[in-house]
Predict the structure.
Amino acid sequence: DQQVKQNSPSLSVQEGRISILNCDYTNSMFDYFLWYKKYPAEGPTFLISISSIKDKNEDGRFTVFLNKSAKHLSLHIVPSQPGDSAVYFCAASGETSGSRLTFGEGTQLTVNP
Amino acid sequence: NAGVMQNPRHLVRRRGQEARLRCSPMKGHSHVYWYRQLPEEGLKFMVYLQKENIIDESGMPKERFSAEFPKEGPSILRIQQVVRGDSAAYFCASSPWSGKGQYFGPGTRLTVT
């Protein structure tokens, strides 16, 4: 039962353009969402989060959008840089899941110079 | 301020041996989480502990796996009688409270031969 899904295993964009990574969830009890970035052989690094009381959160080049009715969130990176090339995971938590995070499968982002 | 530390970074065990994975949370963090990442998959929650207490072990396999977080010292994830299917990256995360911000260590890559 995959409660958090990232349907695109990979995404390739040109440097300077916008990267849009998508994530869908099925559990309506999720109320907090996070994006992590992961390089090979390293642990996930927290990027940005959003609570279900908001529909947008911005931090520098990173913006997360939440559409609760569609159970969909997206991460926008603009402008994209080659150093952004990594695997991006979305994760969710909520009242019924307690403190544990439920992760999507990840999207490999490649930013081409 | 050191981050979450995990050791060893790489561990090779033969089938039937025991594996012990250690995690030292960030300074001031008393909540520890263990996740497992199988090849080509996202991270899956295993167990959530506070000092001397297991809070949520709903993701732990019923047999061979155990976890502890003693009053003094690191958290330990123990896998007895390892099998090839246990080969994975095991990540530990910590947080200062039972909230949403989890900070991950670099992981331990377990290979069972």
About this structure: The interface with chain A takes residues 4, 6, 31, 33, 35, 41-45, 48, 55-56, 58-59, 91, 93, 95, 98-107, 109 of chain B (CB under 8 Å). The longest strand of chain B covers residues 43-50. Chain B has a mean pLDDT of 93. The CA atoms of residues 95 and 102 of chain B lie 5 Å apart.
